[in-house]
Each structure stands twice: as C-alpha cells, then as structure tokens.
Amino acid sequence: MTILFLFAVLFALMFIGVPIAVSLGLAGSLTIMLFSEDSVRSLAIKLFETSEHYTLLAIPFFLLAGAFMTTGGVARRLIDFANACVGHIRGGLAIGAVMACMLFAALSGSSPATVAAVGSIAIAGMVRSGYPREFGAGIVCNAGTLGILIPPSVVMVVYAAATEQSVGKLFMAGVMPGILLGGALMVAIYIIAVKKNLPALPRASFREWLSAGRKALWGLLLMVIILGGIYSGMFTPTEAAAVAAVYSAFIALFVYKDMTIRECPKVVLDSAKLSIMLMFIIANAMLFAHVLTTEQIPQAITAWVLAAGLEPWMFLLVVNIVLLVAGAFMEPSAIILILAPILFPIAVELGIDPIHLGVIMVVNMEIGLITPPVGLNLFVTSAVTGMSVAQVIRAAMPWLMILLSFLMVITYIPAISLALPNWLGM
Asked: Which of 6-20, 231-245, 260-274, 295-309 has the lowest mean pLDDT?
C-alpha cells in the first residue's frame, strides 16, 4: 500500500506539471505523514543531513570550475589544439569537436556545460568550413554527453553519495568507456566524411601544433591536477573540486586574461543558481530515497527479483529499459537518487559489481540527455545554434544509435569499466 501511494503521488504530481524536485519532496513527505511511524521532524532532519553530505560538496565546486572554464576561453583553446591534431583528416573539424568535448569533459564534469562551451565555437567553425549545420549540431549534442562519463563527473558523485561507493574508483571506471565512446564517434564521423566528401583543414605544421598545445596547456593541466591529486592521495575528490575551481578562476583571470575581476560576480552567481537548483533536486530526491529505505521497499523488490529467478543479464536488460524510459522524462541526478537505492542491493545479490552498475547508469543518463522530450543537451544545442529543438532532435537521432550500441557493449562487457580500477588496485 505504501509503495503504491508513494509512486502514485509522485507520478500524479509530475503529470500535472509540478516540478520534479517538488514532486519528489511532496510524495516523500505525504508518505511519511500518512503511513510512516517517523515524526514530521524527520523531514527537516533528512533535508539538513543532505546539505551536510561531504561528497556532494564537490558538485558546486565542479560547476564553478566549469563556469570559469567556459567563460575564460579555455574551450576555444582546446578546440584549436584538437583541430591542430586532427583537423587535416577528412571530417577533421567534426572529429576535433569530439576530441574537444572529451578534453572539456575532463575539466567540467557537466554535459550541458560541455555542449555550451564547445558547441558555441565548434559548430560555427564547421558551418564556415562547409559542413551542414545539422551535422555539426548532431555531433556536438551527442559528444557533449561525455561530460558526465569522463571524470570528473557530477552524476558519478551523486551515484557515489547514493550508494556509498568510492568516487575515485567511479572516476577511474569512466575513463576507458569515455575514450571508447569518443573513439566510436570519431570513426563514424570519418566514415561519413569520406562518403560525403566533407572538407579537411590543411595539415598543421609542427610549430602550429606546438603553439596550439602551449596555449591549451593551462587548461590541460587541470586534468593532471584533478586526477593526479586524487590518485596520489594529495586530496579527496571533494578537495580536488575546490582546487579545480580556484585554479580555473586563476587561469581565466591572470593567465589567459579573457575575464576581468568585474565579471567574476556574474560567473559565481550563475554557477550558484545552477548549484542551488541541482542541490534542491538532490535534497528532495534523497528524502524520497529515505522513504524507500525506511519502508524497506528495496529489500522487498530484491526478494521479489530473486524469487522470480532473474539471471544477471536479464536484470541488466530490465535496468537499461527502465533507465532509458526514465531518462527521457527526468533529470539524471534525480533518477540516480531514486533508482540507485532500489537497484543497488539487487545488483549486489546477483553478483554485479556496484562500480559496473554505476557506469551503466551513467551511460543511460547520457542517452537521456539527448532523448526528447526532456533531453537537456537538445535545448542547450538549440540555444547555441539558433536551431529549433525539433531540428536538433532530427540532427541528433542518427548518432543515438552509436550510444545505444555502446550501452549494450558496456552492459555486458564489465571488464571495460573495471579494468582500470582493478589494475590500479582500487
């Protein structure tokens, strides 16, 4: 009865247009007040505990670092460096855009930030060189999803908080899948570029390549600082996020000088607005997850799945279907916080590695970001290109097949995700 009421209220509120965060909070609160033995005071306590979660403190810092990187011209230098590396290949500007997305993903931890930063420059450059605008928009919209797979990743931080897994291990698990997906997109672009005879840039001389690399070096160093600092034990992932925010502000203001001190308050305010929005969703989603846990709903579902005799591969197939449907309608962090507490114990009982499950969930969230009607990357790409959302959807859909194929590979070949963490002895 409790579980039916909880989800009925949630979906009823969402159906009538109530924001997801409010729907989660109201559904959880009403369930506690009507069915639970917990006092109403537990609502306030749980929301307060959410704000105190140390791991989640990394999110506003990574968002702030991404804001400084986007505003401070780092993306433009990364694109120039990528074009110097691969621009001479047939379809090289598009391949360079994917490479730039991979590099920026390793700095920002956010998919929409990656699309906004790279797309606003790379798509315009492709159009000027003779690429169809829809081609460029579709590529960047899909490649931008790497922002939540290649570490650091805000969504991975949320999964780690929801399941009490190691953030560092999750970050390492995302490296190989991120490189594999980026490589798959590049190969597909090259094949299409050869068939359509898309243009290529003149080959960059060694001096031009060195100059582009030198200009991008300060941005590229942030990857070394974040990942090197975490895995050398110098600081935790949360401390790494704080260091990234300070470092990105420093290079934007004093090294590249693309920003002035006067612009800082606006960047900080925009980042704070995004952080508050995300943390409000997370707080309410954690309240919802608290209700699930106190009512022992995950345990009941686990017992039902085991009694039904589902094999691990069948369970993972069901997980993918559920996550793909949810991703089309909800924000990734909310999905992780609602479903991870339910799926996690079942996966453990079936012998599925929790880190592998985390990567599967993140890849599903990637696909959700480019799936209508609520795919956030679609709206960001529309904003930076001036195309309608319908046009962006048509441009992005052909590339979606690559992501779906990649999801199947990641789901059923866990070694791709687990090889690096296991090799490092994590």
From this structure: 295-309
Residues in the chain: 426
Rounded Cα distance between 157 and 385, Å, is 30
- CB–CB of 159/170 below 8 Å? yes
Residue 371: alpha-carbon gap to chain centroid: 14
Question: Closest by alpha carbon to 352, among 387, 311, 406, 322?
Answer: 311
Higher pLDDT among residues 302 and 150, named by residue: 150
The identity of residue 126, as a single letter, is M
pLDDT band at 116, cuts 50/70/90? confident
Distances (CA, A) of 23 to 132, 276, 287, 339: 41, 17, 11, 15
Q: Which amino acid type is present at position 220?
A: L
CA distance 243 to 264: 17
Query: What is the distance between the alpha carbons of residues 7 and 95, in angstroms, rounded to a whole number?
Result: 44
154: CB partners within 8 A, 6+ apart: 58, 59, 62, 63, 109, 110, 148, 278, 333
Distance of CA 19 to the CA centre of its chain: 21
> pLDDT tens digits, residue range 152-165?
888 999 999 888 89
- CA of 92: how far to CAs of 122, 125, 162, 201, 259, in Å? 11, 12, 40, 7, 30
CA distance 159 to 152: 13
**Percent of all residues in the chain with a pLDDT value above 70, rounded to a whole number:** 98
Residues 6+ away with beta carbon under 8 Å from 220: 78, 81, 103
Q: Alpha-carbon distance 38 to 138, whole Å? A: 49
pLDDT in tens, 347-385: 998 999 999 999 999 999 999 999 887 788 998 899 888
């949810």: which residue's tokens?
326
Mean pLDDT of 145-174: 90
Q: Is 257 left (phi over 0), alpha (psi -120 to 50) or beta?
A: left
Distance CA 312, CA 412 (A): 10
Closest by CA to 159, choosing from 25, 19, 330, 289, is 289
List all residues 6 or more positions away from 107 whose beta carbon is below 8 Å from its beta carbon. Answer: 65, 66, 69, 74, 219, 222, 223, 226, 244, 248
